Amino acid sequence: MKSKPNILLLYTGGTIGMVKDFDSGALKVFNFDKLLQNIPELKQLDCVIETMSFETPIDSSNITPLQWAKIATVIEQNYNNFDGFVILHGSDTMSYSASALSFMLQNLNKPIVFTGSQLPIGDLRTDAKENLITAIQVASLRDNDEAVIQEVCLYFEYKLYRGNRTVKISAEHFNAFISPNYPELAESGVHLRVNKNVLLQKQEDKELLVIKDFDTNVVIIKVFPGINVQVLKAILGAPRLKGVILETYGAGNAPTDAYFVSTLQKAIEQGIHIVNVTQCSGGSVNMGHYETSTLLKEIGVISGKDITTEAAITKLMYLLGQDVPAQEFKELFETSLCGELS
Question: Which InterPro entries match (predicted)?
């Protein structure tokens, strides 16, 4: 008889872990030790659930690479004792965290499922229960005693996405996330339907490798009509700056003014890596397709292709943290490491 999958549920903070005190009306942290008592539906799942919480839950607006390392450490320390992991996290920065963990946790052969909610778990109309129950079910999926999902993903409002392909688009609706350039991995309806043809290919049996060194000497610059050259120079001249995500128009287009291009070129010559990503919610950078992006290509700007800004900035921090040689950096960034770009 096959044993039930063991799932570790880690609460880091966020709305999903809050309940309303009906006397005062204030929100307080849910007691996850009493999870099965409060959500009896979980008993119907064919798995064993254990819970763990950050000693001091954090609002996701305060997330930093230090907390990413903390989450990665919990997974690393418990990896051999569990078959899947569900990370409860605030929705505001969930796409950043899911992207970061996809680079940090290498050689995965188990699911890491991020989820959260728009309303607290104790609210009458909460989305927390469905998100939590289905995220645990996804983490429990097995096929011939092997995990069906073997990557970092994000479950929200009936859809399972690759974590590093997601973007939060709404602060009000339950369907708060989209994956603009990649299909969902699974959809929850009457049946839980997994799109196996879009899952990451199963890795060879290698030991889990956890990388925690991220370099935060980076910045995101959004191009806009009338962008000020002095401001641009001030940002690019910041001490210890090593990398820039440049959010451009359309398929990677930007001003062709001499001041703009020469300022970027000078920064690149000084060793700063500049990555071109599109401001559009969907689509890909294609430098050279239009005249307004040809100059960027010529001065050595890196193409972010169809990567999201969230995945781009975390990938930039990750590669800088590994001291990748300058001559290899562009090729590595433009290569898909864990399904983050096409």
Answer: AsnA_fam, Asp/glu_Ase-like_sf, Asparaginase/glutaminase-like, Asparaginase/glutaminase_AS1, Asparaginase_C, L-asparaginase_C, L-asparaginase_I, L-asparaginase_N
